[in-house]
Each structure stands twice: as C-alpha cells, then as structure tokens.
Amino acid sequence: MSQTFLLEPDIIAATENIMPDLNNDLIRAKNFLKQQSAATGDSLYDHLVDLVHKILTHKPPDVVDNFEQFSWEVKQEKLRPNFDLLNDVYLSPPQLDVARKMEEMFKLVGSKSLNMQDMGEEEQELDLEEESVRPKIADFIDHNYYFRQGGYGLPDSECYAVYIALNMLAIKEPVATVRFFGKIFGTKANYYVAETDLTIEELDRRVREFDMKDMPGEGEGLTEEPVQENEEQKEMMGEGEELELKSKELVPPKLPPLPVSTWQPEPPIPVERPGQGVNKKVYWVCNSLGEPWICLPDTTPAQIRVARLNVRVMTGDLDAEIQTFPPFEGTERHYLRAQIARIAAATSVSPQGFYTFGSGEEEEDLDMEEAGDMNYNQNPFYTGHTIKDLVDPSLGYWVHHGRHILQQGRTIWWNSRAELEASIVLEEGEEEEDEAPPMIEPEVGPSLFSPLSGDAPVSGAAPWSARVSSTLTSSRALAVLRSNLWPGAVAYATDGKRSECMYVGWGQKHQPPNFSPLQLPRPQNEYPIGPEVMEMADPTFADEEAYRIAHLPPAPALEIPGEGEAFGEEEEEEED
Asked: Locations of Acidic residues compositional bias (predicted)?
C-alpha cells in the first residue's frame, strides 16, 4: 500500500475546512514567521533565533529593559560588511604590479629615443661620435628568434621585456657591453642573468679597491709610538727605581710550556683580480623584469671549490643562507655567482673561427697556450661553416671560448710554494738544489678555443648533442647544440655569421643516479696513542716473580782465600 507524503502548504490547504489542530497551527505560524523581507531578505524567524542565541551566549542583566537594544545590535551585525571574506576585498592581480614596472621601463627607454629624435643636426653629429663610447647591447630579439627555431628560447612577450631590461641596465650602470646570459629557476623566484663588461673607468676603480684590500691602513702605524715612548721612559729611570719595581712585582710560578701545534694550514689561494680569469665578466641579476638589476660580487677560488662538492637548488632570495657540507662561505648571491662561473666556463661555445684574439681587425697567429688571459673578439674574417659540418657527431667545428677553471678554482695556475722555493734557493745556493723539496708541477687545463671533441663523456654518453632545426627547408635550417653536462645550456649557429649560446635551467650539473654527498671526516684523536697511555693487563704471580728475579741486585764477588786458611777450614768441617 503506497503512502503519500504531503508538504506543509499541502497540509495547510487540506486542513482549512477541518477542526483546529495544534500541529497545523504551529506549522502555519512558523511559515508566517519565515516570510522574508523585500528590503533586507531577512525573516523574523531567523532574527529571533539570532537574538535568543545572543542573549543566551552573553547572558546580560535586565534583558527585558534592553531587549530593543539587543535587537538593534543583531540587525547591525548582519548588515555590517564582513571584510574578512576575500570576495568583499579587492586584491590586485600580480600581473598589475608587473605591468606597472614594465610601463616605467618602457617609458625610460622610450624617452631616451625621443630625445635623440629631437636633437639638431650638430647635436646628432656629436652623438654619432660618442657611439663608440656607448654600451653595446646584444640583439636578444634576433637571437631568440633563432633559438625558437631550434625549439628553445623564451616567449615573445618575455623576450621583448628582457631586451628592454638590458637597455635599462645599459642606461643606469657603467657597462661597456651587455648580453643576456640566461635564466636560472628557483623554488620561490627565478633569476634573469645579464653578462656585462665594465667601462675602463669603472674597471680601474674596482682594481684599485681590490689592491687596497691587501695594503695596511693609515692608522696602523700610529700604534708603535706609545711603545717607543715607554721604552724611552724606562731608559730614563734610575737603577734604584727599577729594583723597586722588580721587588714589588710578584714572581709567577714556573709552569711547563704549553704544547705547540705543528699543523700548518694551506696558504689561501688568491682571488683573481677584477677583469681577469673567472672575474673577467660582471653579472647582474633580477627576480622580475622591471626591477633594478643587482650586481653579483666577484667569486673566489674557495667558493668555486666548495660549490663543486654540493648540490643545492636556488631559492630566489639572494640573502638566503647556504647550509651545506663542506660549509660555504657566503649567501646565495655568492653561490649563484660561483655556479654562473662554472656554467660560463663549460658551456660558452661557438663555431671554430667565430672569435679571435686581439682586436680582430687584423689576422694574428698566436699560440693558444701562450695566449693566457688575453681578450678575444668576434672575427670579422669569419665566413661560416656548412650545417653538415656543424652537426657532425665529432664536433670538430665547435670550440670553447670560455676559460677553463682549474681544480684550484682559478683559470691561471698559482704556485703555492713559489715563495718557499725561492727562499730555499737563495739560502742553500745552487749546489744544494738537489736536496730541496721537489717542485710542484703546474696544473694545465684545456687551452682557449679547444675543440669540443676533447670533452669527457657524461655517464658513457656524448657531452653534447647536435641536430638540425628543420629537415624540410635546408636553406633556412640551422645547427643546434645542447649540453648534456649542464642541462639547459644550448647554442645555435647558422651557415652565415650568426651564433650565440644561452642557459635556461636550474643551475645544476648532471648528476649520476648513485650520487652521494660528501661524508663528514672522522673525528681526530685527542692525544697520540702510545704505550705510555695504553691500558695493559695486570701481571700474574709468575710475571711478578720473574720481574723480581730479573731485577735482583748482583751477588757480591767471592774472595779467594789463602792456602792456610783453606786448610784450617777443612779441618773444622771434618771435626764437626
């Protein structure tokens, strides 16, 4: 038998002509109180519920006298806007801040171009003469087009913003050349990295500051004067006064001398000067395009050596603490600079002959090993290579134009025993040179412009992967090179005079699957272990008796008696 369930309105309509019922009357009264107001959308039923709940919660005195006041407060709380809800608060999107920064950046670069257009003819001629002094900015828009042809590069919107940011860097900072190095990802923010060469004036200023660090300050020589005055006062004192002072002084007890450590630390490896070696280039970073560029400090050999032993991802905060073992001296800005130096040394590649030593105006025949830290520039006589040669698996037509970093953390080897060897030769003379300690063999790395065919393999695979960007249109194809040692480093080259390299990655070297961090060293011994400090087993009775017998005093020597004495003694023995 099916049952039908009626709703409250149906029950009310069905019972209109029936005798009064308490349940029906309650339902009708409840529906009447739940009628909503057209102005506020609230009902009397809900208002009474909230009012009773407020009274029971606070339990104020004299509720009847202040009932209207409580009712008014309940209404005010409902009508008051709730600012805790995100829907009621306007939050500006993050793109708005980026757009404002980009607008300022575009206005700065645009105002400079407008000023050049408003110049007169004489001013324009003077301006053309100063073009040689102006910073040279690499055309990243053009290079990014070729990178995207090979499947890499940045989006167009980000590419234009990077190019404008490089122009802003050239306007505000004393740089001679500006180039986009790449983009390094971080857990909280990313880094845009720009590679620059400083102007001659700025480079000279930094070199002078670097040289002044090792020189003593002006105030250090003043500390010797009081010592000289005290010595003069002692000489002027009489002998009697000296004896009185000595008698008054307490004679300290004689103590055994403290042990002297024979350990000598290794001499610190000197830092390469600004404009040389790993500090040849100056790098600037920013987290967002439009923000001011921040100059990274010069790196040191110790930082590079420790960075090779650690694996750490960037956070995006230059002041973040580096907690690694071995301990790294510095913050994330120093670690980032060390990683950039390693990446630049290993992934700065170009076709053979694209760069040359010297100014590049004339062809020069120089020995690569004797070149040292010489400057190199783009070769105007470079004619290019065919795409077939550039993608050859032997990679004989690609070379490194980044200086190799030695195990010392420098590009130019430094002899730590040079002063010691020189002093030994001066003291002992030429005759005793054979007895001197052996000379240290200098560390030699690959020379500049060494071919990529000499690179070591990576986990049994080739260190570089070369391919053609397109097999459909050979006339517009280009050669693309990707590093397997530093994932994210790419380079391209056309059959003409265009080539560039860029890095977009996490700033980490390829790691094998079984990588394990460096273990802590074993704790050193507190004291040298020898027989005088070693525990020994207690001797047994037999050992003690053997020791006693071994250390008995020697027996007295027997005197040889005369003939008469010996005869008398024999008779006494017989009588007994």
From this structure: 566-576
212-216, 333-337, 466-470, 508-512: which has the highest mean pLDDT?
Answer: 333-337
Q: Supply φ then ψ for residue 468, to 5 degrees.
A: -95, 140
| Contact indicator for 335, 322 with CB cutoff of 8 Å | yes
How far is 63 from 73, CA to CA, in rounded Å? 13
d(CA 573, CA 117): 147
The CA distance from 452 to 429, in Å, is 46
> Which residues, 6 or more positions from 239, have their beta carbon under 8 angstroms from its beta carbon?
none
In the chain, % helix, strand, coil (3-state, to 5) comes to: 40, 10, 50
What would the two tokens of residue 465 be?
A: 């992967």
**Structure-derived torsion over alpha carbons of residues 539, 542, 548, 550, reported in degrees to the nearest 10:** -110
Residue 15 in 3-state DSSP?
A: coil
pTM for this prediction: 0.69
What letter represents residue 122's amino acid? E
Reply yes or no on whether the pLDDT at 348 is more than 80: yes
Residue 305 has pLDDT above 90, yes or no: yes
Rg of the chain (C-alpha set): 45
Distance CA 501, CA 445 (A): 22
The neighbour count for residue 392, using CB atoms within 10 Å, is 16
Distance CA 47, CA 212 (A): 80
One-letter amino acid identity for 341? A
User: What counts of helices (H) and strands (E) characterise the chain?
Assistant: 18, 13
Amino acid making up residue 554: P
CB 479 within 8 A of CB 391: yes
Going by C-alpha positions, the residue among 468, 507, 466, 509 that lies closest to residue 490 is 466
pLDDT, tens digit (0-9, with 9 covering 90-100), for 262-285: 878 888 899 999 999 999 999 999
Q: Is 301 exposed, middle or buried (0-12, 13-18, 19+ CB in 10 A)?
A: buried
